[in-house]
Amino acid sequence: MAFRKNKTTNKWEFDYKDIKGKRQIKKGFKTKAEAEQAYTKLTEELRQGVAVNNKITFREAAETFMRLHVEVNCKPSTKEGYESYLKNHLNPFFGDMKLNEITPILIKEFIKQKLETGRINSTVNKYTKLISEIYSFMIDNDVVNKNPLARIKALKETKNDKIRALSTEEVQALLSKTKQVYPDFYPLLFTALFTGMRQGELLGLTWSSINWVKGKIKIDKNYTHGRVGTPKTNKIRYVDMSNELAKVLKEWRLACPHSELDLVFPNNEGLHQDAHNMIKRRFKPALNRAGIEEIRFHDLRHTYASLLLANGAPMKYVQSQLGHASITMTMDLYTHLLPEVNDKCVNLLNSIVNTTVETQEKIVRFGT
């Protein structure tokens, strides 16, 4: 840093570096003393994190956050998701605003606008969470000192409302019709329904991950956004393979396209399938052929869980198969899908009451 007199304007000035490391100049001071005073004030403001926010825009802050934090610490799929949120939703609304211009009222206006355009609560929460992360990053790096979302509560999410699980009859119809019409898709569908594996886990599955002797499938890869990565939770898990599933996969191994990548469900060239094409050309048509209302591919995972529970599987087992971090999450997601089980539970004590009444009647008759 140096104080100098501009020969053209005859005014004093000094330079400093902004958050991006770019050289900035403060100019227009009548005396050197004024320049030094301004520098002292600026230094203090920078230390407290209130100076640079007068100029840096939300778009610039987001770019810095993506470059210095997301690219270093986050998975590629997370990065691509953030980029999509910024491009399509956040930057069009906040992009050119200065960080210190974005107030809680503006955040609430954004939330209202997104809800009115049909976005569900959980999706809007993802947008606001990213905004908050950007501000937190800027606060940690002394760029700003306030987060406009600090006192704004997340919208209430109703995860269960989005869950749709197929009934046993629907599963049977779907498998039967798919085997008949789309035999090349049948093994993938069967595996999804009887393991609860996520779409990316299925598309990244390799034959070497199947232990035929132990009847286990190792989930250690995930194929999304054109890349092979780790499973969603970054943890390897093992799912049980039923005898019927083993039979289907053994038959498929003899018929599937050859894959240098050792993929269980490759495309015709032996490479990773494109998820969009799989959904468009196989999954949705298979549902239509079976006369089933359209569902998401992820609902096959929910179907697996609900069928297990409906057939008496312990909640803890379902948790381990799905790879949930806690049994609470599993219970919150799937307990409501079991109305027939719940109905049985409601009447569990009836037999005790009836037995008690019958015993009392017998005692009375015995004593007369």
In brief:
The protein is mainly alpha-helical and 368 residues long. Helix content is 53%, strand content 9%.
Description of the molecule:
- The protein is mainly alpha-helical and 368 residues long.
- The protein has three domains: 3-48; 58-157, Tyrosine recombinase, N-terminal domain (DNA polymerase, domain 1), CATH 1.10.150.130; 168-337, hpI Integrase, Chain A (Orthogonal Bundle).
- It is built from 15 helices and eight strands.
- It has helices spanning 32-48, 58-73, 76-94, 104-116, 121-140, 168-181, 186-195, 199-203, 243-255, 275-289, 299-310, 315-322, 327-334, 339-346, 350-367, and strands spanning 3-5, 12-17, 23-29, 210-211, 216-219, 222-224, 227-229, 237-240.
- The strands form three sheets. The chain has a three-stranded antiparallel beta sheet with strand order 1-2-3. A three-stranded antiparallel beta sheet has the order 4-5-8.
- Strand 2 and strand 3 form a beta hairpin.
- Helix 2 (58-73) runs antiparallel to helix 3 and helix 7 (186-195) packs antiparallel against helix 9 (243-255).
- It is elongated, with a radius of gyration of 30 Å.
- Mean pLDDT, to the nearest integer, reads 85
Spatial gap, N to C terminus: 110 Å
Largest beta sheet: strand ordering: 1-2-3
CATH superfamily of the largest domain: Intergrase catalytic core
Strand content: 5-15%
Largest sheet: 3 strands, antiparallel
Could you give the topology of this structure?
Elements: E1 3-5, E2 12-17, E3 23-29, H1 32-48, H2 58-73, H3 76-94, H4 104-116, H5 121-140, H6 168-181, H7 186-195, H8 199-203, E4 210-211, E5 216-219, E6 222-224, E7 227-229, E8 237-240, H9 243-255, H10 275-289, H11 299-310, H12 315-322, H13 327-334, H14 339-346, H15 350-367
Antiparallel strand pairs: 1-2, 2-3, 4-5, 5-8, 6-7
